Structures are given as C-alpha cells and as structure tokens.
Automatic annotation (TrEMBL):
GO terms for biological process: cysteinyl-tRNA aminoacylation. It comes from Umezawaea endophytica. Its cofactor is Zn(2+). Monomer. A motif ('KMSKS' region) lies at residues 263-267. It is found in: Cytoplasm. It comes from the Bacteria. One of its GO terms (cellular component) is cytosol. Binds 1 zinc ion per subunit. A motif ('HIGH' region) lies at residues 31-41. Zn(2+) binds at C29, C207, H232, E236. This is Cysteine--tRNA ligase. GO terms for molecular function: ATP binding; cysteine-tRNA ligase activity; zinc ion binding. InterPro entries: Cys-tRNA-ligase (IPR015803), Cys-tRNA-synt_Ia_DALR (IPR015273), Cys-tRNA/MSH_ligase (IPR024909), CysS_C (IPR056411), Rossmann-like_a/b/a_fold (IPR014729), tRNA-synt_1_cat_dom (IPR032678), tRNAsynth_Ia_anticodon-bd (IPR009080).
Length: 464
RNA sequence: GGCGGAGUGGCCGAGUGGUUGAGGCACAGGCCUGCAAAGCCUGAUACACGGGUUCAAUUCCCGUCUCCGCCUCCA
C-alpha cells in the first residue's frame, strides 16, 4: 500500500501524490509566540515531524515551512502587561518554542517565516483580493467579503448561514461574517504602511501570503491543530482560492492534548510546559509519549500514562544497548518490518507501528537470550531504523549528546564507574556478594543503576 | 442552533462483521539468575445503553445517555 492520509477537506482517506514527484511541500501553522510552549503545542510539531520523516524516507525532498506569528493582539497585550517591548516578548517566546522543538528532536523546518517579515506579500495579496472584488477597505481595516466566495465553508463543513459570528468589533464590515485581513493602526500600536492606511496583519492573511511565497500558489499538505480548521484554515483557503491559487491539496489536523478532559490553556491553569516536563522525564521519553498515540486521537494527559511511556521507551533502549554492548555498534537498518511500513502508510498509524517495533524488540531479545548474535543484530538494526523514523532511535547521537552536558565530566564519570564495576566484578568472582551488593548500592545511591547480564554489567544514569 | 470527535480489559492504547481482542504498562506464576534488574513464557466473564440489519455485530444502521472540541484567540 502506498501512503494514504486523512484529508480534512474531503473527510476521507486519500492516497498521497505530491504535486511534483520526489518532493513534498508542507506548510504547518506554528505558534503565536505569546507564551511558553506546552506539550500540546509541541505535539503538533512532533506529529508533522513524523510525517516529514516518513515522506523523506524514500529520498523525497521534503520542504517544510512552519510559520511564526510574531504580531497579534495577545502578544501586544502580554508584552504591555509585563512592561516589555512587543518585539522582545515575541522573540523571547519564539526562542522558547524553538528550544522545545529542538529538545524533542524535531528536525528543523526548511524555513520558519515570521509574519512581520512578510507585510509586502500580504499587501500584494490584498491588492489581488480587492481587484477581484473579494475584499474591501473600510476605515483603515481591510475585510474579506465572505459572500463573494461561494465555496466559503467548504473546508470546515460550515454553512454560512449557520455560522455564529463573533469576531469582535463590526466597525466597517458589510457582513458580520466577513473577516479581517488587515487591522487599521490604533494609537501606540506597531504598524506598517499600506495603501489603505497604516496597520498590522490580520491573523489569517499571513499564512496565505507566506505559504505561497515559499511553497508556491499550490502545494501539497497544510497542517495544524484541529482548532484551526475553522476559522483560520477556512479563511486561508478562501483568501488564496479567491484569487485563483490552488493552495493546499491535502489538509491534516492533529488532535489535542487535554488535561482532566479539558484542552490545555493558560486560562484554565492546566498547562504543562516543556521545560517543566523535561525536568521529570528525558526528551525521547516525552517524545515517545506524544508520538505513539495516533495524531488524530486526543491524548488525555496523565502522569501514569507518561510513566508507562517512559518504561516502554526504556525497553527499546535497553535492548539496543544490550546488543551494542555485546556485538558492537549497531547500524541503522533500512529494511523495516512490513507491518511497520503498512501502519505508517495508513495515515501514519503510529500505534500499530510502535506495536510492530516492540514485536521486533521481543524477537531480538529472544535471539539474544538464545545466543544468536547475528539475529539479534539484525533485529536491532531494524528496530533502530523504525525508531529513527519516529525520531525515537535511542542510539542516535541526538539523545546521547544532549544528555551528557559536559564531555569532560562525562569521561571522568565513566572512568570512576568503570573502576567501581571492576572492583565489584572481582568481588563477585570471589563470591563476596556482600561487597558486590554494597558497591551496587553505593552506585545506586549516586543515581547509577547497575544491571548484570551474561555479557557483563551495564550501568545507566537514572535521574529518578 | 450548526459542524466535528469520543465512550474497548487494572491502566494507556489499537483494531475487526465470525473460529486467535495489536502493542505497551502494571500485577501474578514459571524459566533464567549468587541476589537484584533485565529478558523470555503463561495468565482475566473488554468493547456506554436500547433497538434494527445479518446465519453472525464490539465492528454496519437508527435512537438514547455521557464526555469533549470548533463556530471569539488558541497546537
């Protein structure tokens, strides 16, 4: 089976065919950089990171653009609240998001355009919209005329007449459902000049402008959180298609991370920030937790479930380390389990994919127990290959370098631990188990877990 | 009001019209082991409720209940 993806626009599974063979273009709605990222934000980044890795696996040139919304009402409000310049506030949190994505092993996007850097493209798009009669200026604002575009509502399945309309002030709107492309400047707010007066971008406009700028008037996949379907993505599509651009060919949306049944949001006070999480578990363990459920299923956050993921990930890790210790460096396998491939091709079914990965781990462990090193190595290579496609390969330098902050200190630690383990080995050979156990206990007290197996002793830093 | 999602064993989380309910975690027993840990093997009357279709439904259809999301900013 070839790759099939669930397309929100058609509410159906569709076989994926890129516009240009051997490539894939993806636009993901990134963050509005108004605060510290929580695990819900990062889930989105992670889900599309997995998509991107899967698309790139057969050599496709994947172009992934993930924008940064660095100007918006909330950014201005929060910056003011904290007495900071809005641009400093935005960049500070942009960095926090980048750090979080990076910490969790998201490959960097091809580009991450900022809204403030693309006013020219937005003005150009507004010109095109106004020329075609799909937009109008009123009192310094520019609105999209929803009635002018019959397809409006197609993406989200909304009927125009049924849409509750809120969007704040209705100043110059011809129809309350018209949405804002450009906000006229208010005193004291940042603004950029346009033919219709100074102002700042409406939220939706930037994504159409930037996606088109970097991926062309038509591109393969547009993604984001499920909440963005309406109105954000509906509006993006309307803006772009109204001027005749093809825009996104597939729409993908990831589900929420909830807490106590409610979505995470600061106002509810149920946010778990990434730095906080990484104090409790290692990055790949958190990644495992967020990447294993299907991207369209809600994750109801719980400490217990997170701990289960930690154990599950460590099982994979322990197997690979065991094989590496016994047989040397394990290569990254290219032959994957057929079930893994089938699962991933089926709308990125990571639950079954990880299931097959675990089956392979068991197979490898069995081989190891039977002393069949060759089979164990083969299984390990396969496991690495599959794990890597999920960004979860425990042996990847990413997870090993980042955990050892200081190589000098690390080397000293290794030398000391090895020394103690040698001493312990002598004690065990002399059947002086009291001494051997005492040494193990001392290491444990220092945060170092020791496990004996037929090939010798393995030790790991356990921060729990 | 409109649109959409969910309700599966102790827990997380897949999936399917029918004889064998993925995978993980936890627990129990066994093997292995100086011990521990790990590993391997084995273990439970699961599919919200009520109808319907069917030889057969957890899986399809209808209805009910419960929960959640979007329609204002949101990953």
């Amino acid at each position: 089976m070839s790759l099939h993806l669930y397309d929100t626009a058609t509410r159906s599974m569709r076989e994926f065919h890129p516009l240009v063979n051997g490539t894939a273009s993806i636009y993901v709605c990134g963050a509005t950089v108004q605060g510290v990222p929580h695990i819900g934000h990062v889930r989105s980044g992670l889900n599309f990171d997995v998509l991107r890795r899967w698309l790139a696996r057969d050599g496709a040139d994947v172009r992934l653009v993930r924008n940064v919304t660095d100007i918006d009402d909330k950014i201005l409000a929060k910056a003011a609240e904290h007495g900071r310049p809005w641009w400093e506030w935005a960049l500070t949190h942009e960095r926090a998001f980048e750090d979080a994505y990076d910490a969790l092993g998201c490959l960097p996007p091809s580009y991450s355009p900022r809204a403030t850097g693309h006013v020219t493209q937005m003005v150009d798009l507004m010109h095109r919209l106004i020329d075609k009669g799909h937009a109008y200026a009123a009192d310094g604002d520019v609105y999209f005329a929803v009635r002018s575009f019959p397809e409006y509502g197609a993406l989200s399945g909304q009927k125009l007449d049924e849409v509750f309309q809120g969007e704040g002030e209705v100043r110059g709107k011809r129809d309350p459902r018209d949405f804002t492309l450009w906000k006229g400047a208010k005193p004291g707010e940042p603004s950029w000049p346009t033919p219709w007066g100074a102002g700042r971008p409406g939220w939706h406009l930037e994504c159409s402008a930037m996606a088109t700028e970097y991926l062309g008037s038509e591109f393969d996949i547009h993604g984001g959180g499920i909440d963005l379907i309406f109105p954000h993505h509906e509006n993006e599509q309307a803006q772009s298609r109204a001027v005749g651009d093809g825009f996104a060919r597939y729409w993908m949306h990831n589900a929420w991370v909830t807490m106590s049944g409610e979505k995470m949001s600061k106002s509810l006070g149920n946010v778990v920030s990434i730095p906080e999480m990484l104090n409790r578990v290692r990055a790949p363990e958190l990644r495992y937790y967020l990447v294993t459920p299907h991207y369209r299923s809600t994750i109801e956050y719980s400490d217990g479930a997170l701990e289960e993921s930690v154990s599950a990930y460590r099982r994979i890790e322990a197997f690979l380390r065991r094989v590496a210790q016994r047989t040397g460096v394990v290569p990254l396998g290219e032959d994957l389990c057929p079930e893994f491939v089938a699962a991933m091709d089926d709308d990125l079914s990571t639950p079954q994919a990880t299931g097959s990965l675990h089956n392979k781990v068991r197979e490898g462990n069995t081989a190891l127990d039977a002393g069949d090193d060759a089979a164990a190595r083969e299984a390990a290579a396969c496991v690495r290959g599959m794990a890597d496609l999920l960004g979860l390969d425990p042996l990847s330098p990413k997870w090993n370098e980042s955990t050892s902050t200081d190589t000098g200190a690390r080397q000293a630690l290794v030398a000391l631990v090895e020394h103690v383990l040698e001493e312990r080995l002598r004690a065990r050979k002399d059947r002086d188990f009291a001494k051997a156990d005492a040494l193990r206990d001392r290491l444990k007290a220092a945060g170092i877990a020791v496990e004996d197996n037929p090939d010798g002793s393995q030790w790991t830093l356990r921060d729990d």
